[in-house]
Specification:
Layout (H helix, E strand, L loop, with lengths): L6 H8 L13 H11 L15 H17 L19 E2 L1 H6 L15 H5 L5 H12 L5 H16 L1 H11 L5 H9 L5 H11 L2 H8 L5 H9 L4 H10 L20 H9 L1 H18 L5 E5 L3 E7 L11 E5 L3 E5 L1 H33 L2 H27 L5 E3 L4 E6 L4 H4 L8 E5 L6 E5 L6 H17 L7 E5 L3 E5 L12 H15 L4 E6 L7 H15 L7 E5 L8 H4 L3 E11 L2 E10 L7 H7 L4 H15 L29 H8 L7 H16 L1
Parallel strand pairs: 1-11, 6-10, 9-13, 9-14, 11-12, 12-13
Antiparallel strand pairs: 2-3, 3-5, 4-5, 7-8, 7-10, 14-15
Length: 687
């Protein structure tokens, strides 16, 4: 199958490691047998899979690959889920990056991302589930509302939420513990962690007992108290077990009568050895005599060189050190043999008892995993409720309409990052009829990109099941979010910034559907003015034509596009309000209706610290261009008269010749007057 794909190109694009496996991994017989063996079934129909389906080949190949590479059973894999396009909102790599869902764009940190704001979970599996929910928001309005109803109940029931949160703080990573048990890697501490976690489940179930929302009731039902697992571990394993499982100290007294009897039999021997040091010091007069033990030489009596003349005759030399000698006595040798043999047997019996307990728990792996999934979901819902209450979020209305209406929406991340400031809220209204494309103009740094990202994030948060920062919201389900934001190149593949921009735009236009939400920022800025403007113009028209009107936020510096509002009913002009005083501008960060009058680029350059001399020269040149003196820029080059033409965009510039022509009333001008006017215009151009 590898021959069907450009493997080297895939490696270059994804930077992923690709291992080409044998075709035997995909044979129908091998895959079918692997699936039936893994899930212990005679027919895959019981799993919801037809024997000749491609899903069998995919699942079987994965299982065979894991068996080949892991070299042990896969008992932790107890179920599988099929993923179908449309079940969740599809977010491509560019959108995940541009919206900064789980990490920031520049320094790749969680702090400053949406996850950093919303993740107040208390368990490891809850944190993983939070990341999954943000990357895969729901597309089904009924399921979304089930989550929102659960968050609303936890939001309102503060005491219940706090009780659940306190219990969650003591729960270890169920999923990882189940995996370690299934693979035979769990030690005594893992089982005690599992026991302690299970011990908190009854408290959580008590907190959910009177829940009214359907999802919380379902989660309560899915959380199994695992009483049998708790009792087995609690009866067998010591509260403070060692990390190793073959050196004893694992099994509680009272769990095995035979083991307890054997431990009692060596108590006298250990007591004799522990008292040997004191008795020998008194008998021999050697004050610094020590009794020690190591795995190589066993028990020994150690005497320093200064006391060699006091060594008794019954001491047998065993080992010579730099400043001491180690000895053994016949009595110590006999006692050592008794104790060590008994200890070896005890350790073996404890290991066998421990593995028996671990194997018994293996039969509960599926139940433990289901309980873990329910706990993770509950943890995320509690986190959503906690953040929503703390930050003043509200419950959005979600349905299958095509309307997106957000009143006084706020950017969830920037609002938290502002220190000592107040985030300016803005309204958003989109539909598939008269407001399908919001054309946003205004200066850089005024907040166009923030406003567009904010809209996308609020839609995504709502469909993930979280309340959102606004006064009120009505959101018709969005099946995909597309973003084209920022400038970047791909030099490794010889792709310029503009090529990357056009590739992303092409992907969006070819993939977007009626329920998509598109965010486009500065389309066409990577090429010449007229080329870029033409592309941006055509893209805007494409997105709001008569056949399909896709909900789009389109930010641009091409003010010429604002005329589209007159010819296309779906286009609405918005701009970012700016206040100008004494030549200085103040960004108000407020989105208002209408188009911006100018871009204020030189003012932004001033804020960035561009030298004043350069700014003054830029102002002079801007004044020249705005007054139609743009031909001076081309003085170094010679342009033939026949190659000169009036641009289609000249009406947007001031030009005395054009103004005079526009002022003429052709119905009142005689032929002789027309000739004289033309001569005057020609003379003014020649001058």
């Amino acid at each position: 199958f590898a021959s069907l794909y450009q493997v080297d190109e895939i490696k270059l694009i994804t930077e992923a490691y690709i291992n080409t496996v044998s075709n035997e991994f995909f044979s129908e017989k091998a895959c079918l047998e692997a699936v039936k063996a893994q899930f212990n079934c005679i027919s895959t129909v019981a799993l919801g899979l037809e024997p000749d389906s491609f899903a069998i080949l995919s699942l079987g190949a994965l299982l065979n690959y894991l068996l080949e590479t892991q070299k042990h059973s896969l008992k932790q894999i107890t179920t599988f889920k099929t993923y179908e396009m449309g079940m969740h909102m599809a977010l491509d790599k560019a959108t995940l990056r541009n919206l900064e869902l789980t990490e920031t764009l520049y320094d790749k940190k969680v702090s400053g991302s949406l996850l950093g704001v919303l993740d107040k979970t208390h368990t490891a599996m809850g944190s993983r589930k939070m990341k999954q929910w943000l990357r895969e928001p729901l597309n089904n309005s009924e399921q979304i509302n089930l989550r929102l109803d659960a968050v609303e109940e936890l939001y309102n029931q503060l005491l219940v939420r706090n009780n659940i949160k306190e219990s969650l703080k003591g729960i270890y990573d169920f999923e990882r513990l189940a995996g370690r048990i299934a693979t035979g890697n769990a030690n005594g501490k893992d089982l005690i962690a599992l026991r302690n976690s299970i011990g908190l489940l009854p408290d959580i179930k008590d907190s959910l007992e009177y829940a009214s929302s359907q999802l919380l009731q379902d989660l309560n039902h899915e959380i199994n108290p695992l009483t049998e697992v708790y009792n087995v571990i609690n009866d067998a394993i010591c509260d403070e077990p060692p990390f190793t499982i073959k050196e004893g100290g694992l099994i509680k007294e009272g769990y095995s009568e035979e083991l307890d009897t054997l431990k009692d039999s060596i108590k006298d021997g250990k007591f004799w050895i522990s008292n040997l040091e004191a008795s020998e010091r008194e008998r021999t007069g050697i004050k610094n005599l020590k009794v020690g033990y190591n795995k190589v030489f066993g028990y020994y009596l150690e005497v320093t060189r200064s006391y060699y003349d006091m060594i008794p005759e019954n001491y047998i030399r065993k080992q010579t050190l730099a400043n001491a000698e180690r000895f053994i006595t016949p009595e110590l040798k006999d006692m050592e043999s008794l104790v060590l043999n008994a200890e070896a047997k005890i350790n073996q019996m404890e290991y066998e008892s421990f593995t028996a307990v671990r194997e018994h728990i293996e039969s509960y792996i599926a139940i433990i995993q289901a309980t873990s999934a329910a706990i993770a979901s509950l943890d995320v819902l509690c986190s959503f409720a906690h953040v929503s209450e703390k930050l003043g979020y509200v419950k959005p209305k979600i349905d299958d309409s095509m309307e997106i209406s957000i009143v006084k929406g706020r950017h969830p991340v920037i609002e938290e990052m502002i220190s000592g400031g107040l985030f300016i809220p803005n309204d958003t209204y989109l539909n598939d009829k008269d407001s399908s494309l919001l054309l946003i103009t205004g200066p850089n740094m005024a907040g166009k990109s923030t406003y567009m990202r904010q809209t996308a994030l609020l839609v995504l948060m709502a469909q993930a099941g979280c309340f959102i920062p606004c006064e009120s919201a009505h959101i018709g389900v969005v099946d995909r979010i597309f973003t084209r934001i920022g400038a970047s190149d791909n030099l490794a593949q010889g792709q310029s910034t503009f090529y990357v921009e056009m590739s992303e735009l092409s992907y969006i236009l070819n993939s977007a559907g009626p329920r998509s939400l598109i965010i486009l920022d500065e389309i066409g800025r990577g090429t010449s003015t007229y080329d870029g403007l033409s592309i941006a113009w055509a893209a805007a028209e494409y997105l709001c034509n008569d056949k399909i009107q896709i909900r789009t936020l389109f930010a641009t510096h091409y003010h010429e596009l604002t005329v589209l509002e007159e010819s296309h009913p779906g286009v609405k002009n918005l701009n970012v309000d700016v206040s100008e005083e004494d030549g200085n501008i103040i960004f108000l960060h407020k989105i208002v209706e209408g188009s911006a009058s100018r871009s204020y680029g030189i003012h932004v350059a001033k804020l960035a610290g561009i030298p004043n001399k350069l700014l003054e020269r830029a102002k002079d040149k801007l004044h020249e261009l705005e007054n139609g003196q743009h031909h001076e820029i081309a003085k170094p080059s010679v342009v033939k008269e026949e190659e000169m033409q009036i641009s289609m965009f000249m009406p947007f510039m001031e030009n005395p010749v054009v103004d005079k022509l526009k002022a003429l009333n052709l119905m009142e001008v005689t032929p002789s007057q027309a000739i004289r006017i033309l001569e005057e215009l020609k003379e003014s151009i020649d001058d």
